[in-house]
Amino acid sequence: MSEPCPTLRRDGDEVVILDQTRLPHEESYVRLHDLASAAAAIRDMQVRGAPLIGATAAYGVALALRHTATDEALQQALDVLRATRPTAVNLHWALDRMRAALQPLPPSSRGAAAWAEAEAIRRDDAATNARIGSHGLAAFRTLATPNGRPLQFMTHCNAGWLATCGHGTALAPIYAAHAAGLKVHVWVSETRPRNQGLLTAWELTRAGVPHTLIADNAAGWLMAAGRVDAVIVGADRIAANGDTANKVGTYLKALAARAHGLPFYVAAPRSTIDFACPDGAGIPIEERSGDEFRLIHGVGEDGRAQRTRIAGEGAAICNPAFDVTPAELVTGIICEFGILPPDALASLQNH
Ligand SMILES: CSC[C@@H](O)[C@@H](O)C(=O)COP(=O)(O)O
Q1: Could you tell me the pTM of the whole model?
Q2: Going by CA atoms, what residue is nearest to atom 11 of ligand 1?
Q3: Is domain 8-128 classified as CATH 1.20.120.420?
Q4: Which of 28, 188, 214, 345 is the least crowded, having the fewest Cβ atoms under 10 Å away?
């Protein structure tokens, strides 16, 4: 299987991230050197995707404790990082794990322990991705395709290398299937307004996985035309009853999949399930700046980065970043422990 590109790594007393705001046009890396730069990287979406947000926050704690690791410094780091983005629960999961590892220690031991725990979170995420990949692959092998044509998947947003520390969540089974020699093709929806689908296309291109970009609005038509076998997406927070928050537009795909009798899979680690949230109504949905909708970022014919305003001056814009797909539209949740129907999540509560 092709190696995922490194989204996040420690380099001495600093952290190096792949700046996703510059993709797919430019592959550039940024150094994080303190709490403020780690928090800004998450808030401004230089890193994004639920598991990667959590891992970056963990490294942010390590950066914050480099010089002072008092109780106050630890609490401040946790508070600042918790406030960066509201929907992905992996952020809180990772910060809770950091707090549990560090709080009992004397301040003099916390610095080294913070780096060790952040590294462990990163490694664990990659291992979890691999397990999601093999469970998903087992399910994919049961999907029959006529005349040996490729299995046609549809995904939304980016839930691959770029959203995690390994092969991804929704894309891990696709990478596993491709590596196992199954013929696959992926419909990649653009994912307006931030166009995370372009990130998915970038990494699938690097991995050599056949795929095609589509406008978000083309999804229903492709399903109606029999050109999709299954939809697979990631998640930012799954409530105890299986209601799933993911990138805005996921809900419409789930509705269309149900209307056309297609399986709709959510792939996510156990850390994305929030048992404190009984159902989707309790999931906080991030509202982001209207500028994400108003301004298109790209490169001009001269190859230089440019942005273009597409909405009329003064146009009112509503920009929810996520939506909630009700559990009854979800065929199965693929996690590191297997594939569960959404009403069976309680069995994971003590994992
Ligand atoms: C493995 S990532 C799953 C989700 O985090 C992903 O689908 C998503 O919605 C990412 O949103 P983003 O706003 O780009 O952080």
Answers
A1: 0.97
A2: 49
A3: yes
A4: 28
